[in-house]
Amino acid sequence: MIHSVYIHIPFCHHICHYCDFTKFFYNEQMATDYLEALSNEINTQVDGTKNPVRTIFIGGGTPTSLNHTQLKTLLALIADKFDVAHCEEYTIEANPGDFDEEKAKLLKEFGVNRVSLGVQVFDDEMLEKLGRAHRIQDVYKTVNLLKQQSLTNISLDLIYSLPNQTAEHFAKTVSEALAFNLPHYSAYSLQIEPKTIFYNRYKKGQLHRPTQEEEVKMYDILKVKMKEAGIQQYEISNFAKSGFESKHNLTYWNNDYYYGFGAGASGYLPGKRTNNIKPIPAYIKQAMEDGNPTLKIESIGLKEKIEEELFLGLRKLSGIDKQKFLSEYGFPLELLYKSEIDYLIQKGWLVEEEKSIHLTDDGVLFGNEVFEHFLLEDEDLEAIALTKK
């Protein structure tokens, strides 16, 4: 079964200085053409109507940058193609200040039950330096507007290790975010990505980054403040009240299958990972021609699937379920990775319990180094095959 659907809306009214996602300045006619192409892609790739899925996620870009008519067209397309009424979690990304009452009512009418707000930081001056269009007061207005429509499952997204940011400054942002008493929070360390304004400034020596020690201190503050507020960490960058963990993101971390529609979107289907064309004019042209704007298909064999099972699963604080691994692959985790697990335990980066393995606090900080130990050679799987005979 395909568990989830990701739909990418690449338009923004402002381009943030750090963003490397597929995005384009909003243009009304281009957005209308894009939605027509998106409809053709979805209808070509998915048969029938009211297909059952566990989660739907509309991301961007900024999906709420669409005008009222376009947003209604998008939501109607999704409602026709997928069984929204029985969808466990239906999320849309949004920027504070992008909503009015009519848009909020549309979301409620078409079954959206979760909103992820890109707040980033509670500091107007820093928001401006990030290239963000909203200000702190917009966060309060938007949260109130959503709650008036009974859209209370709200996540606030934050960024830390920002240029010239101190640990004390970030602590204030976390405290103000927690004062909303919302069910979910995400917080990510700023990554300087190529083809962004920040990247160009960084290469010129014009961007002051906090030190690694300061970044670690910010992450510690985040974890402590969340725990004190009763918001439990369940993934490296995600925190939630019990029962409000992001079901859609858990699709990724559990290595389950999902559709990916729209410019630059990725999908994960049995045996393959797909990546769509990124440039919007090229995406529209191809999607309108044959409904198949795929740029690249990567075959996912047993080796790749197991590696991703470890890389993604270890992002969760619960880690890798040994019994689930055994049921999925037909052999125990230790048969393939015993020496690696033992080594990482000695390093203090991994803990092995009766039913699972998971990262320690230090392991989280050195996550990429941990994940490298779970890369496989073809000979590893050949040895397993011989053992099972």
Question: What would your notes on this structure say?
Answer:
- With 389 residues, this protein is α/β, with parallel strands linked by helices.
- It folds into 2 domains: 4-253, TIM Barrel (Alpha-Beta Barrel), CATH 3.20.20.70; 302-388, Arc Repressor Mutant, subunit A.
- The protein has 16 helices and 17 strands.
- A 9-stranded mixed sheet has the order 9-10-8-7-6-5-4-1-11, with helices on both faces. The chain has a 3-stranded antiparallel sheet with strand order 12-13-14, with no helix packed on it. Strands 15-17-16 form a 3-stranded antiparallel sheet.
- Strand 5 (89-94), helix 3 (101-109) and strand 6 form a beta-alpha-beta unit.
- Helix 1 (28-45) packs parallel to helix 2.
- The longest helix has 18 residues, at 28-45.
Can you tag this structure with a few keywords?
nine-stranded mixed sheet, TIM Barrel, about 400 residues, three-stranded antiparallel sheet, 2 domains, 16 helices, 17 strands, globular
